[in-house]
Amino acid sequence: xxxxxxxxxDAALRAHVRALLTSPQAHGMLDDVLKxxxxxxxxxxxxxxxxxASEILWHxxxxxxxxxxxxxxxxxxxxxxxxxxxxxxxxxxxxxxxxQVAAFHSDMDALIALLDDPATDLLAVVPNGVGAGGQTWLxxxxxxxxxxxxxxxxxxxxxxxxxxxx
Length: 166
Known about the structure:
By secondary structure, the chain is mainly alpha-helical. It has helices at residues 7-22, 30-34, 53-72, 90-95, 97-116, 137-164.
């Protein structure tokens, strides 16, 4: 499918989506929230909250990877929602903090490479997408941006709570 976007519109749209994924817009960025994060307490569930910071980070990384796999792997297998998208061993997710952060960045780099590839038609349905007008490349990039912003905000809140907790 040939894009219906002019080259100028395509370049502008890619730049906007790239900025949404990689720089603070109307949301915080993961690295800013994680700077000096109290990782020794990242496995704690505070005030009856259902997830710890390490569990949210695991979920954030896993979901981003799942979307990356969905758009680029023709043998992609769906993960059961919601159970498959949350860590099964919360204690190990706390021990794997640095690995989760590194994997998040690696997967983001792969997504940005796809976004920057002129062969990626933003309005085309991804290989595993459902039907015409289904899951387009643009939709998947926007889902990643939206999902990441939501959970980064949760991590920001947990950081504040951890900083104030006794």
